[in-house]
Amino acid sequence: MDQPNTAKVFIDGEAGTTGLGIRDRLRAVPGVELRSLPAEHRKDPAARRAIMQEVDLVVLCLPDAAARESTALAESLGRAAPKLLDASTAHRVAPGWVYGFPEMAPGQAERIAGAARVTNPGCYPTGAVALLRPLVAAGLMQPDYPVTINAVSGYSGGGKSMIEAHEAAGGPAFELYGLGMEHKHLPETQEYAGLTRRPIFVPSVGHYRQGMLVSIPLHLDTLPGRPNGADLHAAIAAWYPGCALVRVLPTQPADRLEPEALNNTDLLELRVYASDAHRQAVLVARLDNLGKGASGAAVQNLSLMLGLPHPAHPKEPAHA
């Protein structure tokens, strides 16, 4: 029997990495009842449509084409359609969908809370947009600035085939990819960072399971007003007042920064490293690509959409 005041949720694609992560995190969210299909019916459109009619919200953890098909199934229910939270890239810049990065801009969390269709951000864009949007909004970076974004992720971000390659056969120590300049995260990065010029994005994968660094090098003399590192840091810090999950850390000297320190948390750390003598800076975002970069962000958005409390992931960073 349904419990009173319980929100019913169906994860379409629950057996994948993101779906499993969402299921695990939802154990800490009161007021959620997960509905599921037997394995033999998970690809049956009629069974999926039927369960969609019984729930309040559906999370799409599917490839893009399948996510579009599931969206059509849900919309065929008319007024009985559930809310949708899409973890694929299918609707990241689509009209009628709200971008699910609550800290991205003032009022964004409220827009997510009131939306029937929310698209979960990509892991790389979460870091890049978090660093760039405050600078564009503050006038410290022109919208047509020639941005270059470098990033490294653990292999869990590459899906089933990459995970199997690294865990079964060992996998390469490190590799660049997306070298055709057509990475699927580019459109949302440009859109939500507020850029009019398409950025150059150079993603890479390391031989470790999870954890991510996104870095953006800048020549300070090419920015409006010739800001210094403290100016950049102040603008980014001012953008995230009181945010539980986004932390703008004080500028401090550092020779190394590793990607795994936020593993198993839903935190996002932002830093500015600068040399005013050389008039250069590097902006850095660190996050767990499975946390704030995927499942953690999905649960945060789901909680907003259903009016539920969202517990910040209780684990703190293990090391710096």
* Sheet with most strands: strand arrangement: 8-9-7-10-13-12-11
User: How much helix is in the residues?
Assistant: 25-40%
Give the beta-strand count: 13
Number of helices: 9
Rounded average pLDDT: 92
Features:
9 helices, seven-stranded mixed beta sheet, 320 residues, alpha/beta
Write a brief caption for the model.
The chain is an alpha/beta fold. The protein contains 9 helices and 13 strands.
Description:
With 320 residues, the chain is of the alpha/beta class. Helices cover 30% and strands 21% of the residues. The protein has helices spanning 17-26, 45-52, 64-75, 108-113, 123-137, 159-168, 186-193, 229-239, 291-306; strands spanning 7-12, 32-35, 57-60, 83-86, 98-99, 117-119, 148-154, 174-176, 200-206, 212-219, 246-248, 268-275, 280-287. A hairpin with a 4-residue loop joins strand 12 and strand 13 (280-287). It is globular, with a radius of gyration of 20 Å.
